[in-house]
Model the fold of this input.
Amino acid sequence: MRIAIYGTGGVGGYFGGRLAQAGEDVTFIARGAHLEAIRSNGLRVSSVHGDFAVAGARATDSPANVGPVDAVLVAVKAWQVAEIAPLIRPLIGPDTVVVPLQNGVEAAPQLVEGLGPDNVVGGLCRVVALIEGPGHIRHGGGDDFVGIAELDNQPSERVERVRAALAEAGLKAESPPDIHAALWAKFLFICAWGGVGAVTRSAVGVTRSLPLTRAMLEGAMTETHNVARARGINLPDTAVATGMAAIDRQPEGGEASMQRDIQDGRPSELESQNGAVARLGRESGVPTPTHDFIYGSLLPQELRARG
Done:
C-alpha cells in the first residue's frame, strides 16, 4: 500500500516506521530539523521490541509532492487536526482512507468538516512513543494497538486492507464493533491519566498510589463515562473499572503525552482532553467538577505556552 504519515512524531514515526520496515510504501510528512534528519539519515527507532532503522525513508513537508495514496495516518496533535485538514487534500484520491490517531473524540468530525465524509474513517491507537531527537523515535511500549473502523460501524474492504497492513507490520490491529465506544473508552482513560498527572506533576505510579489522587483519577473517569452515556455513546458500565485497571498496568514512571507537553512548557492537548470533557458535559447537562478543576488549573500555563 501507498501510505502517508501526516505528522511524524512519536506515534506517526513509530507506526510509519513499522509499516515501512514491513515493506509498505511509506512517505513521512514532517518539518524542520526532524525532516532534514530523516531525509539525510533515514528514520531511526529505538524500541522495547528491538531497535531498527528505515534507511532511505521518503520524507517531505509538502503533501503535493506525494500525490494520492491508499491511506493517510493522521498523527498530529489533536489541536492541530482542524488546521491541517485542508492540507491533506493532495493526498486524497477516490479510494483513499484517512485514519485519525489522536487522543480525544473530535478528530474524525473535524476531518469530515475539512475534507468531506467520503474518505474519513474512525481510528485510535495505544502506544508510548516520542521524538528522542531529529530523525529518532523512542518507543517505550504500550499495547502497540491501532483500531480502525468505518464511522457507521459497517465492515468495508478499504478498512480491512489498512487493518491487514498494520497487522502484517506486527501491530495489534483490530476493527472495533463500535468505533465510537472504543474512542470514548480510550478518552476516559487518557484524560484522567494526563490531566491528573499534569496538575500534580507526578508520574502514574504516584497518582494511582495516593488515595486522594487515585480518587481524582476515578472521579475524572466517572465524569467522562457520564458525559459519554448522555451523548448516546454505548460505553459499558464496567468502563471506569477497566480504565482504572489500565492505569494500574502502566509503568510506575509513566507520563501521558499531554502531561509531558505541559511540564515542558509546550502547547498541549488540554483543550481536546479535559477541556473537551468539560465543554461536552456542559452541552449535555452533566456536571464535570474534576475536569473543570484540572482544566481551570492548567489553562493559565496553556495560554502562556501558546503566547
The chain has two domains: 2-177, 180-302. Strands lie at 2-6, 25-29, 43-47, 52-54, 58-60, 71-74, 97-100, 122-133, 136-149, 172-174.
